Amino acid sequence: MTEISELDPEDKKIITLARSARARNGVAEGAAVRDETGRTYVAGTVSLESLELTALQTAVAMAVASGAKGLEAAAVVSEADAPAAGDLAAVRDLGGAGTPVLLAGPDGALKLAAAAE
């Protein structure tokens, strides 16, 4: 497993942003993605009566809505032990297979570094 101290500073940044979104909004998950130009998009879980999105799906949707053409990396902060299949699919749809997906716990400790496949 990759230690957070071994991560690129830009990857550490998206974990920090995801963690802050989770805490600020009091939601189950926080996420952040970095697009092909280096812009970041940060989101929390969306849970409405008519709309349910994970934090990572929301961050990807925000990137798409802002004109992003690809992703360099994604991060999610959650209690989960693995990224949800729908999250990996959303990242793959915009970033392509192999886009790094970082999963960290609420304390910011990296649990898993996977690739959207």
UniProtKB/TrEMBL annotation:
Database matches in InterPro entries: Cytidine_deaminase-like
Name of the protein in question: Cytidine deaminase
Source organism per UniProt: Kitasatospora phosalacinea
